[in-house]
């Protein structure tokens, strides 16, 4: 097949899938949203890492750069998978229902949460990210600020407004840390062969820092809402502590944070390729569950089917992403390739 | 102690460059001397390993002690809060259960981190034998050159004559006796 048509084919496939999921509604739309976010976190995180490296320099960024450039390049696929869901907003976002049926609290938010403004914002976020991802590292300082602002409001829109009563300030920061941690884990898992030992240790240390940041954000959101125990906010956690979601919250925390943290505590494990790969794989698995845990509970109280659907869709996305990929194209065998950003 | 009685501490030799010092360190260690220290104006790659330093500090390495103390302190902090809130003075706050463990975590974390940092700093000082108010190398008149262009090797004790010979052979600019 012509290598030029392959990316277009991927975009078309994902866009059609997204449209089908949006129109089908039911469990498929939220599961598709979660799967797109699981994969979409990687280019978002990679973009931030590339911009940070542009500002600070350092060998870690040169040795991991190929992986993050590869991830940044799948940003258009993320857009293609997510934006068709706009066609099925009614099945995803409760605030699209007629205003008289909504609780007063949500009705007060309709100046922000309304369809035209929502669509406009989504297009603006993706325009910014696609523009940044085309040449990662352009205007890094302003880019990082815009990246964080856009990500915060993107999370308010696409994740938090799934349960429109809920509000949390730290939500965007939490997701910023999560996407960055996932992109670090990806680079460690798939870019390990090409890395010098010292640079790999630096990447592992940065990764540990980001993971600790995530734990801080996630816990501060929890402790504030748990202490206040207000009816509008606590419902969010109650939905997530019923049936299978309780287990998912513990398991995703253990896989995403606790296990990699324990591995990275030991200086010897941090220098060992096998332990790092193990921790990174655990983190990516935990990331998948974590996104599922953020998106799916309001749609599926028992949780089992939506989790299975999520696993299926995440693998499907992976297949679409890597079908026809030559292995050498995304796993650099040589070190020292300098990102052009 | 024989050395202390005679006022003799050891020898100090000055070298002109880091390579000469490094070879000297290897050759002195080969003859079985272990109590030697190198003093250089800048970090010389490989010198620490040559003098017998290793990253993992044996059973009492800093990281291990910091972790141990941190975990114990965190456990005590959590235990104290749990005991106070559940057994010693149970008060229901905000309708929450007595064992409201999420509220205990910030204190647990702070106490754990504080003690682990203190343990790391104190272990580091003790293992470096700091603070150290007096050292015989400062009896050497030219020692200030160690922070300009002098590469010094000081050896404690040992067979003075043989050692001096060896240091001269390694290309020392001079070899002098260090007194207490």
Keywords:
heterodimer; A: 341 residues; 16 helices; globular; disordered C terminus; B: 180 residues; alpha+beta; Alpha-Beta Plaits; 4-stranded antiparallel β-sheet; 13% strand
Structure description:
The complex is a heterodimer of chains A (341) and B (180). Chain A has 16 helices and no strands. Chain A has one domain. Chain A has 341 residues and is mainly α. The radius of gyration of chain A is 20 Å and the shape is globular. Chain A is 74% helix and 0% strand. Residues 328-341 of chain A have low confidence and may be disordered. Chain A has helices at 5-24, 28-56, 59-72, 75-82, 89-92, 104-107, 115-134, 140-158, 171-190, 197-228, 231-239, 243-265, 267-270, 273-295, 304-322, 327-330. In chain A, 42% of the residues are buried. Chain B has 180 residues and is α+β, with helices and mostly antiparallel strands. Chain B has two domains: 2-54 and 135-179, Alpha-Beta Plaits (2-Layer Sandwich), CATH 3.30.70; 58-127, no CATH class. Helices cover 48% and strands 13% of the residues of chain B. Chain B contains six helices and four strands; from the N terminus they run αβαβαααβαβ. Chain B has helices at 2-6, 18-30, 47-50, 62-88, 101-127, 160-169; strands spanning 8-15, 36-39, 151-156, 174-179. A four-stranded antiparallel beta sheet of chain B has the order 2-3-1-4. The longest helix of chain B is centred in the middle third of the chain and has 27 residues, at 62-88. The radius of gyration of chain B is 26 Å and the shape is rod-shaped. The model of chain B has no long low-confidence stretch (mean pLDDT 89).
